[in-house]
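In this section we walk through a basic example: taking a raw amino acid sequence and producing a predicted 3D structure, encoded as discrete structure tokens. The instruction is simple. Fold the sequence below.
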Amino acid sequence: MIIPPRTDRKTLWLTLLLVSLSVLLLLSAILWSRTRPVEMHDLHLAAGEKLKCVSYAPYHRPGQTPLEIDTRIDREQIAADLAALSKITDCVRLYSVDQGLDQVPELARPLGMKVLLGAWIGYEKSRNARELEHAIALANANTDVVRALIVGNEVLLRRERTEDEMRELIRHAKAQAKVPVTYADVWEFWTRHDGLAAEVDFVTVHILPFWEDEPVDIELALAHVAETRRHVGEHFTGKHILIGETGWPSAGRQREESTPSRVNQARYVREFVHRAHAEGWDYNLIEAIDQPWKRKLEGTVGGYWGMLEAANLTAKFPLAGPVAERDSLFGPIGGALIGGVLTLLLAATGRRTHCLRVGALTATGALGGVVAVLHWEHAHVAYRDALEWILLGGVGALAGLLPLTLARWYGESIPASGMAGRTLWQTERLRSKAASLGMLRGLLLFAAAVAALLLWVDPRYRDFPTLLYLVPAVVFGVTGWWRNGTTRRERTCAAVIAVGVIARWSTEPANAQAIAWLVVGLALALPPLFVRTHQDEQR
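The resulting token sequence is shown next.
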């Protein structure tokens, strides 16, 4: 690393100060706005009235997942879950009767709750047969509790069975069951396979604005549901329609104009339930409790469709009154103070303690502290296993240390005048620091290139990693223009980043998360792409 002339150094530190302060102020404004209560429609249910039905899966405690065949949920947990849910609804929908879920009808009875009993249908025919027979027997033994038997969930959507195969399974269930029988799938697949309607007692459709092929903004979500419900009702004239799944996620990746958030989830549920009760729609909300295990299949957003928190079964939002996205700013403020103070101490005790340099590095450190807290919050929501904690947490740690490293080392590297007047030990020490900074820059560019590539080619269930690379984008996006050399490896990574973020943004240009990722990616990529390489200098 070469120190620029004194005039250029002042420009560098002034630029870094202004950029860091600008990003810090923008981030502060966004965070502040997320603490502001948002007014929305209050949901006032009639005396004794509750939500008609909610999807229930008991896999909300650490380590619990239906993906492990040996999982079994104990009776006490299911009883506690149903007791909590009985305060908001008189009905739960199940998707399987395996892994302890066959205990639900018995435990729901004393609570006065009904059950939409589900038989899971998948690829394995023998397992399907066992599941269906178990579900039929359970429904017949609990006809006072079981409202209906749902034979399969989105099987046609997943292409795990054909329409003819589903018809045979439904006919078998109808011949044996003493309760009404239905099949559940997204509304488009019901209309494509409308011949199945003759086989079921009622049609169960899923209407999820967030997951539509063309995602729907929260402003238009309820109108979309109402129009889809009208279309389905007309398509299946004479059949009772159950909206088997509808809801909105509270966290995760934005899909075009569909933004997951606590406020949007509260708004959707309140407005939908009000409209459903006014119109007389039969419905089931997805879902009762957050399901962290779903992050394995659907990314962060998959785990946060619940109305209750996974950890303590408390409601995410009230049914009346304003709702805010964040409860407080104590964490980010504390992070800013710690990051700013640590960077100030390191910058002020170095050999180059010019006020402009110290101010720029302190602002960068404060920004790094805020981002570190936000990244820690996001990690608890998004990271799914030890590997992600190690890899992504490692990148976050490197990014968080960058302002401190910059404060201690940047400006002590090789001066433009060379090594004249320095001892061999001083020379080697400075070269070591320059190499360490170069290695840190290279690692972060490589990690960002991998992230950009993955998000480009496989975006559906991946979060935008903007927080991970925001501080490196500020630091390298400024200091990179004052370097007089960059390696071909860095330039290659930068090219991948630039192509990846532009390609990702171009497919969803209205997505605020995609725009933020575009800006961060270009800030990282442009300096290496336009600064001369060492090979160029030698020509």
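Looking at the output, two observations stand out. DSSP finds 18 helices and ten strands in the chain. The mean pLDDT is 89. In the next section we compare this with other chains.
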